[in-house]
Amino acid sequence: MQAYTKERELNLEKVMQLRTAGGGGAAAAAAGDDAAMSLQAVEISACNVREAFATFDISGDGFLDKGELAKMLMRGDGPHRITSEEEANAKVDQIIKDFDENKDEQLSVEEFVQWWKSTQKVDYKVEHE
Q1: Exposed, middle or buried, 52 (CB in 10 Å: 0-12/13-18/19+)?
Q2: pTM higher than 0.70, yes or no?
Q3: Is 15 inside a domain boundary?
Q4: Cβ-contact 50, 72 below 8 angstroms
Q5: How far apart are CA 58 and CA 68, in angstroms?
Q6: How many domains, the chain?
Q7: How far apart are CA 95 and CA 101, in angstroms?
């Protein structure tokens, strides 16, 4: 839970930096507010992703193994739902390759959040002066 708290603090700090950045008048303030709102949306969604992680963690061990990840990818009715087990397994192998930092063949909640963030369209970068 401490990693979650630290990540949340860093994200909220970035939101505040974006809100106060600029000083170039109303246009800069509006651009900062828009960027901050986008980042805030990512932060809120990241909290929801952590809750979803617990749902997908069928074994309750605090990790998503390949089977749990495949089941997650194959559920729901959305346009990105994977319908074949072979396609799900291939996608899981790619996710594990790209986001399993400690190479234990499963995703921790932190690794899962990083994967999820990579799927979002929001620019997550903050420029430092």
Answers
A1: middle
A2: no
A3: yes
A4: no
A5: 7
A6: 2
A7: 11
Per-residue DSSP letters for 63-92?
A: EEEHHHHHHHHT-S-STT----HHHHHHHH
Q: Which residues pair with 8 in a beta bridge?
A: none
In a domain, residue 128? The reply is no
Report residue 128 as tokens. 């430092």
Say how many residues make up the chain.
129
Asked if residue 21 and residue 73 are part of one domain, the reply reads no
The pLDDT assigned to 77 comes to 77
Tracing tokens 């979650």 back to the chain, one arrives at 4
What's the chain's Rg over C-alpha atoms?
A: 17
Same domain, 71 and 43: no
pLDDT tens digit string along 18-70? Answer: 444 444 444 444 444 454 446 566 666 777 888 889 999 999 999 999 999 99
Residue 15 to residues 35, 53, 122, Cα–Cα distance (Å): 8, 24, 13
Residue with token string 């860093």: 10
Range of the domain at 46: 1-56
